[in-house]
Design a protein that fits this description.
The protein is α+β, with helices and mostly antiparallel strands and about 525 residues long. The protein contains 16 helices and 10 strands. Strands 1, 2, 3, 4, 5, 6, 7 and 8 form an 8-stranded antiparallel sheet that branches. Strands 9-10 form a two-stranded antiparallel sheet. Helix 11 runs antiparallel to helix 12 and helix 14 runs antiparallel to helix 15.
Length: about 525
């Protein structure tokens, strides 16, 4: 057993990772021996019997305890255990012991598992603790360690952010499921779910030792003076506001369920016979949605963004389930189609609403990133890449996006020898090249993309010149387009060199112009 100075810590074994995941609040907290240093020598301190009574009262109806007393190794050990099996505990008021040996030694997850956490949006929340009653009610697992602070006139403030939840595959576990496992002896609850996130627990002491202080977040006044200091923390609250939330994924709160007495009713239940799948009729809403979506995809492939978006919206009206379809592709192997929400975001872009489509597409990527493995930087780059594949250059708001899209559009215009379009796109590129920021010191997050756009701009003029020359049948028109690049090239004699190259190119490629 650890000393009372290390209450709530897991026993750290010599065996790997979780040899003994025992989260012990305090032997004194619920009737054990020994007095914590915070209680020793204090007048008016609760007796062990009174503490045990408060713990017993706190346990009633408190099946969602915070675990802010756990240190980094405790949290890591819990996560490692939860990655393989259901976690069983012995929970009695102010004392929670994780029974790390309560699992099947052969089959991981035999008694249930948590799977991939579901990440959610959230916000920073919190509460204050000003007296012992609030301490036992709000942080029963921290009562043994923190009661001395509260009795000494300190108030506590907990700030936390819930970024996600991991839920067990079992809604109930019965004594018959665990009674044969000696490692489960004494188990009272199993962790049905646990919240991930980050937290900060701080205290504020009264320099005047007046207990009626209003707490660390209240305005000071009179004789009250607070010196706030950190008590414990897990993860980083600042990370919770980012996309990847890499430091906002530690267990902060448990949802416990009592192990149900008796036999598991499913253990002897006969296997259910699968029902025959009901095939929707030709005119069912699902069938109509499928047909509309098929036509929407055809219009999208033809470049009709407005038509594709209109049909996609109609399909969503027939089958509202499409709103939750975030996968990249769906459907049987022989009939795959794009996931609806991604397709619709692309259709919005193609319809000329690039900014709206970018927002929708980023939401798709963010939702699809269920494990929050991708950074905001990665998502932004991916959105920009897709937007430049779909959006019109006319909707570009930064030079590099215009150049990237213009190059794509130029190739399409050149195929059909649309001279005016080729000329306009080349002119737009010429105008924007000087505005590119290619300096790593002035644009730390986009200079590499600007450099790439500058390189791409150099590939615009040859196809544009050929397109204009062949559409007008005038070689001089093509040469004028080609020479326009000299406005941004610091090279003496650029016009003469360009003219010579153009003459050679006409002969080599047999450009149809005079």
């Amino acid at each position: 057993m650890h000393s009372s100075a290390n209450l709530f810590r897991l026993r750290r074994p010599l065996l790997p990772v979780l040899a003994s995941l025992s989260v012990v609040a305090s032997t004194v907290a619920c009737g054990g021996g020994g007095v914590p240093p915070t209680m020793a020598g204090r007048q008016g301190m609760l007796s062990q019997t009174a503490v045990a009574q408060k713990c017993e009262e706190a346990a009633k109806g408190h099946d969602r305890p915070f675990v802010v007393e756990w240190d980094a190794t405790d949290l890591a050990s819990f996560e490692a255990k939860a990655a393989r099996d259901t976690i069983f505990v012995k929970y009695e008021g102010c004392k929670l012991v994780v029974l790390d040996r309560c699992s099947d030694g052969v089959v991981s997850g035999k008694l249930g598992s948590y799977g991939t956490p579901q990440f959610t949006t959230g916000t920073v929340q919190g509460f204050e603790i000003k007296n012992e009653g609030e301490l036992y009610a709000k942080l029963p697992l921290g009562a043994a360690n923190l009661s001395g602070r509260v009795q000494a006139g300190e108030s506590l403030a907990l700030k936390y952010f819930v970024s996600g939840v991991a839920q067990n595959t079992r809604d109930a576990i019965y004594t018959s499921d665990v009674k044969a496992n000696p490692g489960c002896a004494g188990a009272t609850h199993f962790v049905w779910a646990y919240n991930l996130g980050a937290f900060e627990l701080a205290s504020a002491a009264n320099s005047s030792a007046e207990v009626e202080a209003s707490g660390p977040m209240a305005a000071g006044g009179g004789k009250k003076s607070h010196a706030e200091k950190a008590v414990s923390s897990g993860g980083k609250l600042a990370s919770c506001e980012t996309q990847d939330q890499r430091a906002c994924r530690v267990p902060i709160r448990l949802a416990l369920r009592t192990i149900t007495a008796g036999e598991n009713p499913l253990s002897q239940a006969a296997p259910a016979k699968p029902d025959a799948p009901a095939a929707p009729g030709a005119d069912s809403p699902e069938a109509q949605a499928k047909q509309l979506l098929k036509e929407a995809i055809r219009k999208y492939d033809q470049g009709d963004g407005v038509g594709a978006l209109e049909l996609a919206n109609r399909a969503m009206g027939f089958d509202p389930r499409l709103k939750n379809e975030y996968d990249e592709e769906v459907g049987p192997q022989d009939d795959r189609r794009p996931g609806f929400m991604e397709f619709r975001a692309r259709a919005v872009m193609l319809a000329g609403k690039c900014d709206d489509g970018r927002k929708d597409y980023r939401a798709v990527l963010s939702t699809r990133d269920r494990k929050h493995e991708k950074t905001d930087f990665f998502l932004d780059r991916e959105v920009e890449k897709v937007a430049n594949e779909v959006c019109s250059s006319a909707t570009a708001t930064v030079p590099r996006d215009y150049i990237t899209r213009a190059y794509r559009e130029l190739k399409a215009a050149a195929k059909v020898k649309d001279g005016p379009r080729c000329k306009a796109l080349a002119a737009g590129v010429t105008e924007r090249v000087p505005k590119l920021d290619q300096s790593a010191t002035t644009n730390k997050t986009g200079w590499d993309l600007d450099q790439r756009a500058a390189s791409l701009a150099g590939n615009v003029y040859d196809p544009a010149a050929i397109c204009v020359a062949e559409s007008t049948k005038k070689c001089a028109e093509g040469l004028a387009v080609l020479k326009s690049q000299c406005k941004n090239v610091k090279m003496s004699g650029c016009d003469d060199i360009t003219a010579k190259n153009w003459a050679a190119q006409k002969d080599r490629l047999k450009i149809d112009c005079k």
